[in-house]
């Protein structure tokens, strides 16, 4: 009985794929019966121990599967019945193209994000740089949700708020994985106990006063993701006050649920709605950069003119009534730009620091004229020293914020 070339190619493909997976440490199990679109399963192995984490594999062998390609990869086209089966499979599914002549195997994951629908069916691009080798370990662990997490949380910042009567810390905590409420409570307890023994000091004064002493107060803000932290969208906050702290120096409590160890947790009821709002109102990087730089470029000449007028006032070339008139007339122009800056939308994650500097920039520009404008509009008595001092101070802050904006902008461009 003759063996067809296609059958021989299929067997060589399965054997080649199996060998490559076994060689890099996976258990490879061929499906020898009832092939409905899955040729094999691979099992992840950690430190020579089988994990029970499985991935289904569909293998396509031979040159015919490599006919359609582009600079990035090979294009595989399939029928809808197979796609429906793979997308609803209980295991993650890999499709592997095997070039038996070159002994190379390329893979891609079948997901709604990797599939492109055509007029009659669907296609998927299998990258030329995704070969079966040790470099795929991280992708496979992510696929079966078995990425190792060495710690459930990261303390992103520690701020010391101590004074002479109490050693106090505020911590921002970012979670490294999804947590149940019970797990969150454990995180809060562990972080609080860690902070009680903290030895960070903001100055020599507090170091000399409190070094080697346990903290009296610990506050936590807990964020499910780094993006939540950037948006200051915490899921809970907690407080811990030491029994040894003099009652006269106890901070005002924000209350919350008592979880033991003198720790109270307050859950943020608005976390999910805030998350949805942030997602719906965030703008792309290109639009954010164009909008902020555009408004900054319109504000800058107005502020430069105000700076010149303040110098004229200092030199005696412009009387106080004149500077009031100038500040009053410039306020509506700058205020329109300020409001436009507030309305551009939320910045993308990587531009959060730029956004902070931009908001500061337009706020200080707006504040230069604020006292004078409201004094005139309300027909109030205007204090010359106060108005001039405010205008000069806000101008100085504006210059500082502008430098910070340009510095942060360069980091993301």
Write the layout of secondary structure elements.
Elements: H1 5-23, E1 27-30, E2 40-46, E3 49-61, E4 73-78, H2 80-87, E5 93-99, E6 104-109, E7 115-117, E8 122-127, H3 137-143, E9 153-160, E10 168-175, H4 181-196, H5 204-210, E11 217-223, H6 226-230, E12 236-241, E13 257-260, E14 263-267, H7 271-281, H8 285-315, H9 320-342, H10 352-368, H11 370-377, H12 384-412
**Category by helix and strand content:** alpha+beta
| Largest beta sheet: strand ordering | 9-10-11-12-14-13
Task: Output mean pLDDT.
Answer: 91
- Report on the biggest sheet: 6 strands, mixed
Number of helical segments with 4 or more residues: 12
Rg from alpha-carbon coordinates: 31 Å
Question: For the terminal residues, how far apart are their CA atoms?
Answer: 67 Å
- What sort of overall outline do the alpha carbons produce when their principal axes are compared? flat
Helix content: 40-55%
Pick out the low-confidence regions: none
Number of strands: 14
How much of the residues is beta strand, in percent? Answer: 15-25%
One letter per element, helices H and strands E, the order comes to: HEEEEHEEEEHEEHHEHEEEHHHHHH
What does this structure look like?
With 413 residues, the protein is α+β, with helices and mostly antiparallel strands. Helices cover 44% and strands 22% of the residues. The protein has twelve helices and 14 strands. It has a six-stranded mixed beta sheet. A five-stranded mixed beta sheet has the order 1-2-3-5-6. It has a three-stranded antiparallel beta sheet with strand order 4-8-7. α8 (285-315) runs parallel beside α10 and α9 runs antiparallel to α10. The longest helix is centred in the last third of the chain and has 31 residues, at 285-315. The termini are far apart. The mean pLDDT is 91.
